[in-house]
């Protein structure tokens, strides 16, 4: 059973391959929704304040980072390097875009700052996913076997 869960996806039948990828994308999106819940009732802390209450906590951000890094490592180990980016980084970035674009900004002119925030945090998520996937990819047995065969030919 362990070999089935950790073998490269390219060696698995296509329904299993796509079901695993779909499950990974769903888990990534679910992790974002659980760790960074949306509170549509955001309101100013005090009258005439631009600081709003938020359900986002430091612990939630850390939990999201750990969950996304674990998913990235799993898919980096099992699949080609581009797939973790699509499966793990894109769902949270899309949900963040929806969340930020539907939330009304403060009336003082900073309402258009959300695209920059979204771009920065999406880049941060994507970079973390790629690094975790690349590190996990180094532990693939088939890559080690290929490197040994190339070294023996030289």
Automatic annotation (TrEMBL):
Superkingdom of the organism of origin: Bacteria
Protein's UniProt name: Uncharacterized protein
Keywords tagged on the record: Membrane, Transmembrane, Transmembrane helix
Stretches that traverse the bilayer: 21-40, 55-74, 81-98, 118-136
């Amino acid at each position: 059973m362990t070999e089935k869960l950790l073998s490269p996806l390219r060696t698995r039948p296509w329904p299993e391959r796509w079901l695993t990828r779909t499950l990974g994308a769903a888990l990534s999106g679910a992790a974002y929704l659980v760790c960074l819940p949306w509170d549509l009732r955001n309101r100013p802390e005090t009258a005439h304040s631009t600081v709003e209450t938020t359900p986002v906590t430091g612990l939630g951000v850390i939990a999201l980072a750990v969950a996304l890094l674990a998913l990235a490592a799993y898919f980096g180990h099992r699949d080609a390097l581009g797939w973790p980016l699509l499966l793990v980084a894109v769902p949270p970035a899309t949900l963040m875009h929806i969340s930020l674009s539907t939330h009304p900004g403060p009336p003082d002119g900073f309402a258009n700052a959300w695209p920059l925030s979204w771009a920065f945090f999406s880049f941060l998520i994507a970079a973390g996913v790629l690094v975790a996937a690349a590190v996990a990819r180094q532990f693939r047995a088939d890559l080690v076997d290929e490197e040994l065969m190339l070294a023996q030919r030289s």
